[in-house]
Design goal:
Layout lengths: L1 E6 L1 H11 L6 E7 L5 H8 L4 E3 L5 E2 L10 E5 L4 E2 L1 H5 L5 E5 L11 H7 L4 E8 L9 E8 L6 H27 L20
Parallel strand pairs: 1-2, 1-5, 2-3, 4-6, 5-7
Antiparallel strand pairs: 7-8, 8-9
Length: 196
């Protein structure tokens, strides 16, 4: 199964490391925001083609190579156009550090802490026209420790959870050729915009 990773920074680099050894998975291309980004450097060191998209908010069909079976986003705030998703046999998935549909948005972990949620979680979801609103492929949860900061929660539980869930979903997709797609319950949706 040919996977194109769209992402950046630490989490993008860690997703690459998590997926390179998944059985029957080949990383076909990395699409990132800068040639010196951590994900770009990690991909180039492994001999993987790296493409920089000029608009950090948009990934178009030209960035997705022919023969892509799945797009995986990893710390990407770029919108993947419908045409780009259509070039991928199974579309695209991403990891969101919340129990979607709760805390849709760029600051999900911060809003988990701000709202005093006793439970946090992570979701693998299908990329869709609306941000963080696509059907769910997998979810898991964890308790939030008393007085834990957003960064501490991310590093302790949510980033490792995301890596594990992505490995599981991508591995199952490589084995079966399918990805679960459970619609989100819109009535429970909340927003998590950037905090000032």
């Amino acid at each position: 199964m040919n996977v194109t990773i769209v992402g950046s920074r630490y989490f993008g680099q860690e997703v690459l490391k998590a997926l390179v050894d998944v059985k029957d998975v080949v990383i076909a291309r990395i699409v990132t925001i800068a040639p010196d980004d951590r994900l770009a450097l990690a991909g180039a060191a492994r001999g993987i083609e790296v493409v920089v998209h000029p608009d950090p908010h948009l990934v178009t069909a030209e960035h997705i190579p022919a023969g892509t079976d799945l797009i995986v986003t990893a710390h990407s705030h770029a919108r993947i156009t419908p045409e780009a998703l259509a070039k991928s046999r199974l579309g695209g998935i991403g990891y969101h550090p919340s129990l979607l549909p709760r805390h849709r948005g760029i600051a999900a972990v911060e809003w988990t802490i701000k709202e005093g949620d006793p439970i946090a979680g992570g979701s693998i979801y299908h990329l869709a026209e609306r941000m963080d609103a696509g059907p769910l492929a997998a979810q898991d949860w964890c308790f939030v420790r008393k007085n834990e900061t957003a960064r501490e929660l991310w590093e302790r539980a949510l980033a490792p959870m995301g890596l594990r869930l992505l490995r599981e979903v991508v591995g199952a997709a490589a084995a079966t050729g399918t990805i679960p797609a459970i619609p989100q319950q819109e009535e429970f949706a909340t927003r998590a915009p950037m905090l000032k």
